[in-house]
Specification:
- The protein is mainly alpha-helical.
- Helix 4 crosses helix 7.
- It is elongated and about 70 Å long.
C-alpha cells in the first residue's frame, strides 16, 4: 500500500487491538506509525497516534495519571489546538473524556487546558453525559461559579473596578463586593490578579 494508506490501515488496526485489550500489540503498531508520520509532519495522523497511545497506556496502567498518559494527550491537544481538529477528538469517543478532564483539572499550560475545556464542551454538546458531569462539577474549584459570579469575573479580567461593575450589571457595590469575595473563596485566591490568573489556568477565561 502507499505509505499514507498504510498508515490509515494501521491506525484502524491499532483501534481494533485496543478494543480487544491487546495493549502491547497496540503500542508496537503505534511505534511503527509514529516512525513514518512524525518525519513526514503529518500532524493529523500524529495527533491520532498520541490519542491512541494515551488511551492504551491508561488501559495498561489503570489510571489517567499513569506515566505517559497525560504527556501523550497533552501533545495531542497541542497538535490539534491551532488547526482546530475537534472532530478527530470527538470521533475517538467518550473514552477520551476522563483524559481531557485530567488535563483540565491538572497543571498543563493555560492554552492546553483551555482547549481541553473546549473539547469537553463539544463532547457535552454531542450528548456525552460524562463530559457534562465534568463541566458541571467545575474541576479545580472549591465550588462552581454561579452565572452572576462568572459575569463579575469577566469584568474583573477586563480591569473594571467595583463601581464600574455595579453600573454595568445594575447592582449595588455591596453586592459586587460579595460576589468578588465568593469568587476569591471558590478560586482559593486573595487578589484580583490571582483570580484572573487562576481562572485562565482553569479555562474559565480565555488565554491572554
Amino acid at each position: 500500500l502507499p505509505l499514507i494508506a498504510a498508515e490509515a490501515f494501521k491506525l484502524n488496526l491499532a483501534r481494533i487491538y485496543l478494543a480487544r485489550g491487546e495493549s502491547l500489540k497496540t503500542c508496537r503498531l503505534l511505534d511503527e506509525i509514529q516512525a513514518t508520520v512524525e518525519p513526514g509532519q503529518r500532524f493529523g495522523r500524529l495527533l491520532e497516534v498520541c490519542m491512541l497511545r494515551a488511551l492504551t497506556l491508561r488501559q495498561m496502567r489503570g489510571s489517567v495519571t499513569a506515566d505517559g498518559v497525560l504527556d501523550n494527550i497533552e501533545r495531542a491537544l497541542d497538535l490539534g489546538e491551532r488547526p482546530g481538529f475537534v472532530m478527530l477528538f470527538l470521533e475517538e469517543g467518550p473514552p477520551l473524556v476522563p483524559l481531557l478532564n485530567a488535563v483540565f483539572a491538572g497543571d498543563a499550560p493555560a492554552r492546553t487546558k483551555g482547549y481541553a475545556r473546549k473539547l469537553l464542551l463539544a463532547f457535552a454538546a454531542a450528548g456525552t453525559a460524562d463530559a457534562e458531569t465534568c463541566l458541571r462539577s467545575g474541576e479545580g474549584l472549591v465550588e462552581p461559579l454561579t452565572a452572576r459570579e462568572a459575569e463579575v469575573l469577566a469584568l474583573i479580567a477586563s480591569g473594571d473596578n467595583n463601581q464600574t461593575i455595579a453600573d454595568k450589571l445594575f447592582i449595588s457595590v455591596r453586592t459586587v463586593k460579595k460576589h468578588v469575595s465568593n469568587i476569591f473563596g471558590k478560586l482559593n485566591v486573595s487578589s484580583r490578579t490571582q483570580a484572573v490568573a487562576q481562572s485562565r489556568g482553569l479555562g474559565l477565561l480565555p488565554p491572554d
